[in-house]
Queue: 3 jobs
Job 1
Amino acid sequence: MNKEFDLFFILLMILLFTISIFVLLRLYIIHIKRKIIQSYEFLSNQQKWLNVTLSSLRDGIITTDTEGRITYINHKAQELTGFTESEALGKQIDEIFIIRSQKKVYSSEGPFYNFVHENEISSCTVDTILVSKNGTEHTITNLEAPIRSKAGEIIGTVRVFQDVTEQKRAERMQHIIYRIAEATNKSTNLEALFRYIHKLLGTIIDTSNFYIALYDESLDHINFPYYVDENLREKDLKPPVTRKNGKGLTEYIIKSGKSLLADKALLKSLVDAGQIEVNGPLPNVWLGTPLKAENRIIGVMAVQSYSESITYSQKDLEFMEYVSTQIAVAIERKRKEEIINHLAYYDSLTDMPNRALFTDRLKMAIIHAHRNNELLAILFLDLDRFKNVNDTLGHTIGDKLLKEVSLRLKKCLREGDTIARLGGDEFTILLPRLRSGKDAAKVAQKVIDC
């Protein structure tokens, strides 16, 4: 009996021990599961936090494996490349990240090869252009480096890039302002200044069709001192020079005092409403801005496009407005310089060369005559009884008589001859490149007969 009891007790103890071991194992497994779940939730939250952080950055980030296949792309990189995450993952880096620069074109055999095979960090210069899926171009700075395992083995790459398009545009705009101010001092005349402005603006926007119009308020005329238009070139037509103030787009800007960015539909509506009149074909898009100096409008600067592939945006309008003030100041300053220079060498009443300019041309003519063994002549001319005209009819009539005489004298002379007003009713005439004295006598008689 005792032996049976001892055996039963032993079996009971073994059963209880087994149950205890099972319970402990179960509790341990539950504990491990909880730890795993907590770790997973922690890692998941960390991944979400990392994704949110990377997506919030201004920089684009793309990672790849060692074969160049994309393993991660953040929101900014998707925005700049034009590819969504589902489109990009698994693709080769050079399929979605198409970049070029002024010096070379990069592909997966360029920088990527350097870090994976040559163990080098690569960067692209600030003139690098990223071409997105839809063809939009972004100026970027770009850095790519290898991703290493704990053992130091390269397991992929990370590419970090930033869109600096607006920064570079602002720098170029500021540079243009500086260059315009510089050109005002260096340009010899308005024509040279206009050509330089045209070239400078062409570095920011398309200026294939560009003109500058100046408004003469005293005559109510519009002058076109600089006009470049592809339609005129194709049809071998001359650009407009001067016209009375009318209902063109230029006049529309002058009257409104505001810039205008108009596509063909808006232009057509303005024509239909009778607000503007357009000669020739309507451009696909037209952008014009007033030139303002000293609190008045002195003219208009405009670009236009006849092609659907070339258009202008609100940013282009803002750019034109940004530089227009500096351009207007430059034009006004150069115009005043030309007026001062003109007054220094031309008679204010007859617009003939004055004594200073005549003397300068005489010196040059003498040098030329000596060099080429030619003759020259100088004629002196005054008006008989001119004092009687002033005394009896007044100086206003006398001035009109001098103007009429100057016009007649100009018609009598050859191209290359110089006639100058020395003062009062005294004129001098320079006749270069004569073969004999008889030639001078013929010109003198012609002047008397005029």
Job 2
Amino acid sequence: MAQRVREREESGRMRYGALPGDDDVLHAGDVVLGGRYRVVGVLGRGGMATVYAAVRGERGDEVALKLLHAKAASRADVEYRLRNEVELVAELGDHPHIVRPLEAGRLRECDDLPFVISARACGRPLSRILASERALPAARAVRIGLDIASALLALHARRIVHRDVKPENIVVDEAGGREHARLVDFGLASREPSDAGAPRVTAVFERPGTTLYMSPEQASGAAARCAFDVFAWGVTMHEMLAGVAPLAGLAAGELVARKLDPAEPAPSLRRLQLELPDALVELVDACMAREPSGGPRWCTCRRSSSRCSIGSAGRPTHSRPPSPTSGRARAPRQASPGSRRGGLASPCLRRSCPCVD
């Protein structure tokens, strides 16, 4: 057993040892949390935190340890948010399309900086896949979308809102010869308030999330609603199918202004005239509809999902050719064989969603 742990650690050094940083407070070989975890290397860095690869105990289970930077740790509510992340998702148990956070607290070995430990997500972020491949074949995008829809259904059944669904927070691996997508990073997750007096994780008018994927109501600073995730799922599907997210390239301020402008048309795949199944286009557009209350967006998704299908060969059934005059349209890509047959489920997955009032 000890030999297997050493092998995993050595593998980790080879895979991540090329990413040392002057500001790293942990290094390969460091032992933390009373000897329960041994750091292997660095997985990535962001403006708020550094994520380390680590192994747990003699079993050598691989985990991701996210350690917040000192400037981010100064917020009074940061520890509450991390513990809230673990406690909310713990209700779900193990889910095949969710990477669950395991524990959170403050790391004594690092000046009590806040941390959260999650199961290790193997595979590539969807954002990296899209950066290299641009638009995905329809059947592949549908399979990834179905996996994330399944994760959202499990969250929304408990009135948990992720609030940051986007390609960066979706990890895709090929275990067992089939791509599996999993939702990660629940740092902004919040319970949907059941009444006006319910507590909020964020202040009024605070806009947690990523602006490009926000619904108009999320951009306005409204309290968390499951409809936030439906909109972001639609934007992510749009990006997978069209190769670009709606309004991509705009500055954050202009993005918010466009989203809040009632005269601004809702994002639409149909306007791009891509060669895609009509029902798939209808479903994605329904998810991105401009509906501040959230309810009509959900209902339209359910109606669309019941009619959306991909042929058994995985080829789009849309009969309209791409528009030769549309500057935003992209050449269609042939979907790969082996797509899932039958209904494409929205996050509601053809059942009544408990978050619809």
Job 3
Amino acid sequence: MRLRQLVQPFLNYQITGAENPDILHIVTDSRQAAPGALFAAIPGHTVDGHAFAAQAVEQGAVALLVERRIEGIRADVPQVIVRDTRHMSALLADRLFDRPSRRLRVVGVTGTNGKTTVTHLVRHLLEVAGRRTGVIGTVGAKYGDVELPLPNTTPEAVEVHRLLRTFVDAGCSHAVMEVSSHALVERRAAGVSFASAAFTNLTQDHLDFHGTMERYAAAKSLLFARLGNAFDESAGNSPHAVINVDDPWAQTMMDATTAPILTYGLEREADIHADDVHLTAAGATLRVRTPVGVLSAQTGLIGRFNVYNALAAIAIALVEGVQLDVIAAGLASYPGVPGRCERIDGGQPLACSSIMRTRLTVSPTYCRACGNLPRDGSSSSSAAAAIAIVRNVPAWLKRRRSLPISPFLQATTRAVKIRFPFWPICGKVCRPRSPPRCANRSTGGRRSAKPSAKQSRGYRRDRRQRSRGLSDCWPRAIALR
């Protein structure tokens, strides 16, 4: 497509020069530029793409998409000047690839946790129903037997549209993608026409980027605001907002959309509600009430949080017109996501799942030594969480307090969620392995002659933890009975 034909539908741009080259593809990385490429210079958090425009031209780029005119570029290379190159590159990619999201049923899944499991489970249910589906997310993109690595949960907008075009060419009818809050704020999903969207949950995370939980929730709600006002009465074509009603931020997502809302949950009354839930080390069985009937399901997914993931996938499948018996068969045959509580069985006397680690942001964080905020003004800390599923534990192991399987995992005699100990401390002064010396006190970082009650309690707690074998870098989780 010629450059001027590509940008013709838009009004807020300027083009330098009179050339009108043929655009074959769009790139945001100057190292990927080739003859026929339009290079989009996107300002990043650490580097500015405008600094690499000359390199892109040397690589063969025939045009530039910029926010300001770049000096020193050859006169025969036109520069398209726009207000926001990231946003415009998404719209141009959608147009260049012939609007692939409108040829697919694209389902977006957002939330702090559960996006990867839900997207892969939805893909599996749709595949069982005979609908070829592609997936985009944290563990990469996949369609059929083809797997492609991705650098982000939601890649750059140009790459998103290129992948959707690939799905269309491969004969897919659906695409399921994880949509992160960063991607929504940075418009990496701009130009994508979502058929439906799902919200899993919202917990404290990414506050270094969003600042507050309110802004974090507002970023997530952008996905539901994009579902539009249109309603298609034909089966399987109307957009829906699938919401976890048990989450405290559910109402924020509901208020952001005009699309029909389908709720799911365990505790509150919901359209998709699970009761009679039985959790074991081998999975879960549940009875699900839906608007179209009752579903008795069995899944190999472990834990209560995966029951929520299964409910979200069931709701999306119903929106896409999948029958209940097909959903039940898909849940029973779902093998799980690679690296997500994947069961490990190598003939050992006990069988446990692979570790699942997630970062938990805690805000505000107070120093355990002095009870005050850190000197550097930071207000967040992180903890790691893991899940160990252990069964068939020999009797001699049950008599032990813990079993050191690895430096960061302790086996337990039953399925249990383990939270690693973490130390919110003042940073450069307070250390878990030394008596508390806090920069917040008047001593200026020197050890106080007489520690306060809070200091003493924190130090004693620290000594107790160290006596149990905890280390600074990879603390060993305490086994629970």
